[in-house]
């Protein structure tokens, strides 16, 4: 890749906006598009070009990055609204959304037929990691393309090539299982501490640094103690990924009992109208099930 590629960035919501800002601050020329136009227009002040049409945003782009809600949304945008046709041969589409592995493989196959490279590169690290450029990026696809895209990835976080097309999404499912089950464990532990007579905040402090320590305990444990459930990672997206993980497990002939339980718990929260709260709000369900 000669020089700095031009980038079309599709999806500038909670995660996409800070990611696009990091690319802009690094000197990349970035065109942005979002379904809610105001979210894209907010990036103009940082040097972006905001386009009202998605095709205009990717026209002449060397690299297109998608950061969207789901597989159907990515498919509709790329193949239903002209993005694939607008990309020139030799361009690269990096899908950083969380979608099913089979969908990622199909996207790669269809784009390759038009001479466009594809990487599935979902992320972990939340809005904090997106803002700080410290995301963990799990990349599936051709190794040579991954290396060619290193200058882009380096501005967003740490990219690890985990295998062929679809492997990035498999890694993200593994990530989401660990996150969800650990949130459940932290919620139960802090709820037990609070109801059994200990100072839950002091218990969290005591646990940090021991074998029970984790980023979930530190960051989401703090959220739980403060009752701060403004979404960084909303329940609806956590649930979507867990349901995808369950489907992948079924396809592989596996049963994942812990994942089954936590998926059901998140489903109950979503059904109760809490789908847009942060996924750390799993504690709310314990409090409702165990009124004092």
Explain this structure to me?
- With 292 residues, the chain is α/β, with parallel strands linked by helices.
- It has 2 domains: 6-164, NAD(P)-binding Rossmann-like Domain (Rossmann fold); 170-289, N-(1-d-carboxylethyl)-l-norvaline Dehydrogenase, domain 2.
- Helix content is 53%, strand content 13%.
- The chain is built from 15 helices and 9 strands.
- The chain has helices at residues 16-25, 37-41, 54-58, 71-80, 83-86, 101-112, 126-132, 143-148, 150-153, 167-195, 200-207, 215-226, 235-251, 257-274, 282-289; strands spanning 6-10, 29-33, 49-50, 63-66, 92-95, 117-120, 123-124, 135-140, 157-163.
- A 6-stranded parallel beta sheet has the order 3-2-1-4-5-6, with helices on both faces. Strands 7-8-9 form a 3-stranded mixed beta sheet.
- Helix 1 (16-25) links the parallel strand 1 (6-10) and strand 2.
- Helix 10 packs across helix 14 (257-274), helix 11 (200-207) packs antiparallel against helix 12 and helix 13 packs antiparallel against helix 14.
- The model has no long low-confidence stretch (mean pLDDT 96).
Helix/strand class: alpha/beta
Overall form: globular
Oligomer: single chain
Order the strands across the largest sheet as they lie in space.
Answer: 3-2-1-4-5-6
Which architecture of the largest domain does the CATH hierarchy give at level 2? 3-Layer(aba) Sandwich
CATH topological fold name of the largest domain = Rossmann fold
Number of helices: 15
Question: Major β-sheet, in short?
Answer: 6 strands, parallel
Strands, total number: 9
Tell me the helix content.
40-55%
CATH-level-4 superfamily name of the largest domain: NAD(P)-binding Rossmann-like Domain
């Amino acid at each position: 890749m000669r020089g700095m590629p031009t980038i079309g960035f599709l999806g500038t919501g909670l995660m996409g906006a800070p990611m696009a800002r990091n690319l802009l601050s690094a000197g990349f020329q970035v065109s942005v598009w979002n379904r809610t136009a105001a979210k894209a227009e907010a990036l103009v002040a940082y040097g972006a070009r905001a386009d009202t049409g998605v095709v205009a945003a990717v026209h002449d782009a060397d690299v297109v990055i998608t950061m969207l809600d789901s597989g159907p949304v990515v498919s509709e945008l790329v193949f239903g609204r002209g993005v694939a046709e607008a990309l020139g041969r030799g361009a690269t589409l990096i899908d950083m959304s969380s979608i099913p592995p089979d969908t990622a493989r199909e996207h790669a196959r269809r784009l390759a037929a038009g001479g466009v490279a594809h990487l599935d590169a979902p992320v972990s690290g939340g809005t904090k990691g997106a803002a700080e450029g410290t995301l963990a990026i799990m990349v599936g696809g051709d190794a040579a393309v991954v290396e060619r895209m290193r200058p882009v990835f380096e501005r967003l976080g740490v990219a690890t090539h985990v295998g062929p097309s679809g492997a990035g999404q498999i890694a993200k499912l593994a990530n989401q299982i660990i996150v969800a089950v650990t949130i459940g464990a932290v919620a139960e532990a802090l709820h037990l501490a609070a109801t059994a007579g200990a100072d839950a905040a002091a218990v969290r402090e005591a646990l940090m640094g021991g074998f029970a320590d984790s980023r979930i305990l530190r960051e989401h444990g703090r959220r739980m103690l403060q009752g701060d459930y403004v979404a960084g990672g909303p329940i609806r997206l956590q649930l979507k990924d867990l349901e995808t993980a369950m489907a992948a497990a079924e396809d592989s002939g596996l049963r994942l009992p812990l994942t089954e339980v936590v998926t059901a718990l998140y489903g109950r929260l979503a059904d109760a109208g809490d789908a847009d709260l942060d996924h750390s709000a799993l504690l709310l369900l314990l409090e409702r099930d165990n009124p004092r």
